[in-house]
Specification:
Number of strands: 17
Helix content: 40-55%
Shape: elongated
CATH topology of the largest domain: Rossmann fold
Largest sheet: 8 strands, mixed
CATH architecture of the largest domain: 3-Layer(aba) Sandwich
Distance between the termini: 82 Å
Length: about 650
């Protein structure tokens, strides 16, 4: 209190209300993975947790999506290429015949020019030039027809060559020279008639070869034969971008991105560890998602799960949403039961801080129009170009060595790379039926995604609309076309209730309702305290909110007035939570109680040691997971 020494009026203000508890944010996920870039202006964001609130901001600071390269495998490609080679040879033969006809017509024109020059009695020098052109044309013609073994055509051309050689020597005898030139015209026309008779035969042979090529290509359309396939995954698979799209599509808001590398390298367990280290200094994130962990080997995936659970156990203020390794496979897959493998390898540390969902989903993040031949390896692009050109009826395949290539298009030069005409490839892709199948399959591979990121969005949306105490279940997943495995009630029984408590939440399709989340349990499914994810997250929300508010009383006198102020502060906060439906009970007394005081929560020794103990009891609402309605007949009363 201010000492009053001078007469006058003094104003003294007293606080009438205790400090209040400010609710912490409950839905702020942190994502770890590889991005295209990681820059804020000139500042690197590599291994730096960076807060964003929209997909627009993600694109600004972390770039766009990857362009994964898949491999195309075609079992009957040698048959297609063999049949196509014969077709190319026949096309070359037909083209050669057409060129030969043009050469004959040029020969006839030169012979007529010679006759005209002789009749007009032009200087011998001019006439000799024309005779030389006739000889040169005959030499070309002789080369053109050497492979045409039809009706002695090469012999006829040889005779013309003999006559042509004589013409030049007979220039001084115009009448004889005109007769020789006329013989050239007559013989060449005879050859032209013979060649014209060949053309229908060649075209008929070509038609049969086209049918042979089409027969091989049509086999690719047959689902039953399955003569082609797209590789399961490219060498470098970066999927964080697609998962962020799912997050925002399902109601996501503010989140942290920890970029641990770019698209030149694949995600590793070491990247996960490096990304978790700076996250320990951030107190706002309440969820942890590592979408690219499922792209690792099983052993590497297992390490990342251990890192994630260990991080949540250390921080105590966030939960991990885990993806099941190879969760797109059914449980009876020949390679093994993916759910069983998950349960047996997830460990037993802090399972109440984690939830898992099965199966993955077929999403619609990427459309077929987004897929082009940049999504194929160079060899696969060459193979697809060959098939599409035959399929679309090109007379012959164009040379694929061109001046424009994929690497130049992305700004990366590779001197030893085979250059491909990607403009031609993508033009053909728009019209090719087989190209459409390839594009659809690649799109399907990219859109097969785990659901942790989508669930983070659903958690956020549920928290914002209903509160963190509402179980994030019975909610449709946006951009989900279907689950990769259709679960039945019987199939879900094993997922939901496990003898060892490793509960897995189901993603199910319901007719007329779409793909929905059908489970809200943590991995600690046998725990009466932490069975449900909304209970764990509500408790984190209460703990963190009260913890932050209690910091104001650190070093305050450990006396009754401080105890009463803190008790009133906490009770006011819990009253507000109860009114919103976050706590169970018909009255506040049933929903919560706060205990503090000497002889209640503290001993004299505690006070001497500077310890203030407060006990908060809360009745958190549990979801009505099983609803039983009993029906019974009764006697007629009227």
């Amino acid at each position: 209190m201010e000492t009053m020494k001078t007469p006058g009026v003094y104003i003294v203000e007293k606080n009438a209300f205790p400090n209040s508890v400010v609710p912490v944010a409950t839905a702020v996920p942190a994502f770890i993975g590889h991005t295209q870039i990681a820059m804020n202006g000139t500042k690197s964001l590599l291994n730096v947790p960076f807060r964003i609130t929209s997909m627009l901001e993600y694109n600004k600071y972390f770039g766009g999506g990857p362009q994964p390269e898949y491999s195309l495998s075609v079992e009957n490609q040698e048959n297609i290429k063999g049949a196509g080679k014969k077709l190319d040879e026949k096309d070359a033969e037909i083209e050669s015949v057409n060129i030969t006809i043009n050469t004959i017509q040029n020969l006839q024109e030169e012979a007529n020019n010679l006759i005209s020059a002789l009749e007009e009695k032009k200087p011998e020098g001019e006439t000799t030039v024309i005779a030389d052109r006739i000889i040169a044309t005959v030499v070309i013609l002789e080369d053109d027809v050497k492979t045409l073994e039809y009706d002695n055509i090469p012999s006829d051309v040889a005779n013309i060559k003999t006559v042509a050689d004589n013409v030049k020597e007979l220039i001084s005898q115009p009448d004889v020279a005109k007769l020789k030139a006329n013989d050239i015209i007559i013989t060449s026309k005879d050859i032209q008639v013979k060649i014209n008779n060949i053309v229908p035969k060649l075209k008929n042979e070509r038609k049969q070869l086209v049918e042979a090529v089409n027969t091989e290509i049509k086999k690719l359309y047959s689902v039953s034969e399955s003569l082609w396939s797209i590789s399961e995954a490219p060498t470098i698979l970066n999927t964080l971008y697609y998962n962020i799209v799912l997050f925002f599509a399902n109601g996501g808001g503010a989140c942290y991105i920890v970029s641990v590398g770019d698209y030149s390298e694949a995600f590793t367990s070491e990247d996960c560890e490096a990304g978790l280290t700076p996250l320990t200094k951030e107190m706002e994130p309440t969820m942890l998602i590592i979408p690219e962990a499922v792209n690792l080997s099983f052993e590497e995936w297992k390490k990342t799960m251990e890192y994630a659970l260990g991080h949540c156990d250390t921080m105590k203020n966030r939960v991990a949403i885990l993806d099941i390794f190879e969760g797109y496979k059914p449980q009876n897959d020949s390679s093994g039961d993916v759910v069983k493998n998950f349960r047996e390898n997830i460990g037993s540390i802090s399972l109440d801080y984690a939830a898992a969902y099965y199966p993955w989903i077929n999403a619609s993040v990427v459309s077929e129009s987004d897929i082009d031949t940049f999504n194929l390896t160079t060899e696969s692009a060459k193979l697809l170009l060959t098939i599409m050109q035959y399929e679309l009826g090109y007379k012959s395949t164009k040379k694929i060595e061109q001046t424009d290539n994929k690497e130049n298009a992305t700004g990366v030069e590779k001197a030893d790379e085979v250059l491909l005409d990607y403009k031609l490839l993508n033009t053909l892709l728009q019209s090719s039926p087989f190209g459409a199948l390839v594009r659809k399959e690649i799109c399907k591979k990219i859109n097969r995604l785990p659901v942790a990121a989508a669930m983070a969005g659903i958690y956020t949306k549920t928290d914002n609309t209903r509160g963190v105490w509402k179980a994030p279940a019975n909610v449709s997943i946006n951009k989900a076309v279907s689950p990769t495995v259709n679960l039945t009630n019987n199939a879900q029984e094993d997922l939901n209730v496990d003898i060892y408590g490793r509960s897995i939440n189901a993603i199910r399709y319901f007719k007329g309702e779409g793909v929905k989340v059908w489970g809200a349990r943590t991995l600690d499914g046998n725990s009466g305290d932490w069975r449900y994810i909304n209970v764990r997250r509500t408790m984190i929300f209460l703990e963190e909110s009260i913890k932050n508010a209690a910091r104001a009383y650190v070093f305050e006198p450990n006396v009754a007035s401080t105890w009463l102020n803190m008790k009133a502060m906490i009770e006011n906060f819990l009253l507000g939570v109860w009114k919103q439906g976050g706590l169970a009970g018909a009255s506040p007394e049933d929903a919560y109680s706060v205990h503090v005081g000497l002889g209640d929560t503290m001993t004299p020794e505690d006070i001497l040691e500077g310890i203030l103990r407060i006990t908060v009891l809360v009745a958190i609402s549990h979801p009505a997971e099983f609803i039983e309605i009993t029906f019974q007949q009764q006697m007629q009363k009227s």
